[in-house]
Amino acid sequence: MQSLIYKVFTRKYALSLQADALEYLSGIIEQNGLSTADATRWLETVADTWSKREGMYTERPLVQLEPLKELVAAVAAGTESGPAEGVVLADSSNSNGSGSDLFSVISAYDVPPWWYDPGKKGFVHPFEKADILSSAEAKAALFRQRYDLIRQRVMRNENFTPISFSDQEKDRFYTLSSIDSLQGRDGEHFLLFGMLSQLEEGKLFLEDKAGSIELDLSEMKSKHASVNGLFTESCFVLVDGYVEDAVFVVEEIGLPPPEARDRTRAAFPNTNLFGGNAPLRTEAQLREIEVSNDGGIIILSDVWLDQPETMAALRTLFEGFSHTAPPIAFVFIGDFSSTPFVAGSGDTAKYRDNMAALGQLIGSFPGIARTSHFVFVPGINDPWGQGALPRPPLAEFFTRRLGSRLARATFTTNPCRIKYCTHEIIIFREDLLKRIRRNSVLPPTESTEIAKHLVRTVVDQGHLCPLPQRIRPVYWAYDHAMRVYPAPDVLVLADRFDSYSVNYEGAQCINPGPFSAGDFSFFMYYPVSRTAQYSRIPRQ
For the chain, what percent of residues have pLDDT higher than 90? Predict the structure, then answer.
């Protein structure tokens, strides 16, 4: 059996085993009397899980005994089959699809802080540990990282070419030029990539890592009255045009081309950009679990708990699900009060009591309270919401009584991430559309819905809030938590704008709209069909 173990671990997965780890695996196979075919399948499962969980997070090249024992125990823990099969991963039919190992919430502070290194053409760990009080170097690195991350994505696009291609092939592709290469080349056409900025009052510039140049948009505006997407300062763009008297005359401008999620994952197969622990089940088993559980994830935003009408609508919502299988999860997104929270006032006791009242309401439906996951994301006006992004979770002082009534409650940051089986979900609460439109430097195309412009901008920028720091500050060392890269399966941009559901480049982008300020609308996302359904509760 040792030769079989070497064949799977070393030849197929390029893993080296310690001698005691090799004996341990051999003993399990002999103890359970596994056939060669069964042993091969089990060894491949263990090796694949090790590669994903250990290789991705700790970069451990050697399979060691103690962590191997932990992994094998975790793999076997989910099954109730006989001893000969006890080492096999849990069968999907034994899970209701809502276990803690299948549904996990990742706070912004736990997102892996990967930096893209153009020299190594891969991701590396940053020079310092992420901290709210970070060094000045982190601020400079913030925009360099955004630049490098988007540029490597652009260069992988099928319409662009590396410099090494022959002259005949170059004619079929676009080639990016750096700003410092434009000197003394008036009248020639160039395609540039960089960040929009206002280095002088009333003048728009393009910056890259090599320099900056003033932009003249008058010729482009005479051709196009509007553009696709929302362009603000600090956005990264592609501009096509020519140089005239040290000014770049723009003929065309556009957002960087998006990249399909599968292509990003194929480019960086061993880098966990999303966060969370690697699954102990194979992707095929996770998909089986999704199919076996046709439940949904309920998403609500601006749930004002101080309004009696809101509590009545929530009771109607829970009553509707109490007679069917409980949903996988309820995602409650702030604000949780109709008025901004004011510290040191009577709002503290009122806010805590409103949270407790929600817990009492949910507790009156024991099936839902025991089975469904509950995720609470703070809003703009929740305590202590003022300041930079990401926002911390609601303090335990406010949520203790609510959490005590729920079996699976998570109070997390804004933004946050959710991993359910094979699905990756990003949730962000911000009145983003209003902020971006107010700071746009170019008018968007009127024939396209404004929500589609917003979704396109966020996904193409690979960032939840592509605004200048003076408009919407982000903690420098946590800018990586604001990334939208790779594109998630579901992107929730909770906004006070009207509800919408837009599919862009395979990402289902949802705004549930304000629950309490509107018509008690919400969305239900079905993982099995990857569709989002708009619903509302009639006002009484």
Answer: 62
- Asked if residue 359 lies in contact with residue 376, where contact means CB atoms within 8 angstroms, the answer is no
pLDDT band at 475, cuts 50/70/90? Answer: very high
CA separation for the pair 105, 400 (Å, rounded): 18
Calpha distance 209→212 (Å, rounded): 8
CA-to-CA distance for 359 and 235, rounded, in angstroms?
42
Rounded to whole angstroms, the Cα distance separating 27 from 19 reads 12
Cα–Cα distance, 381 to 400 (Å, whole number): 20
319: tokens are 């009553």
Confirm if 331 and 372 have CB atoms less than 8 A apart: no
Dist CA 381 CA 341 (whole Å): 6
Helix and strand numbers (H, E) in the chain are: 15, 22
Query: CA-to-CA distance for 151 and 350, rounded, in angstroms?
Result: 49
Give me the pLDDT at residue 57, please. Answer: 43
CB neighbours (10 Å) of residue 168?
7
- Eight-state DSSP code of residue 211: E
CA dist 17 and 167 (Å) reads 49
Tell me the torsion sign for CA atoms 188, 194, 196, 201: negative
Residue linked to tokens 């960040």: 195
SS3 309: helix
Q: Which of 470, 461, 448 is nearest to 493 (CA)?
A: 461
Q: CA 540, CA 535: separation in Å to the nearest integer?
A: 16
Q: What does the buried/exposed string (b/e) look like for 149-165 if buried means 16 or more CB atoms within 10 Å of the residue's CB?
A: bbbbbbeeeeebbeeee
First CA to last CA across the chain, in angstroms?
69
Whole-number Å distance between alpha carbons of 377 and 444: 31
CA–CA distance, 287 with 46 (Å, rounded to integer): 19
**The pairing of beta strand 329-333 with beta strand 416-420:** unpaired
Global pTM? 0.82
pLDDT surpassing 60 at residue 94: no
More confident residue, 173 or 473: 473
Give the list of residues 6+ apart from residue 357 with CB closer than 8 angstroms, or none: 305, 311
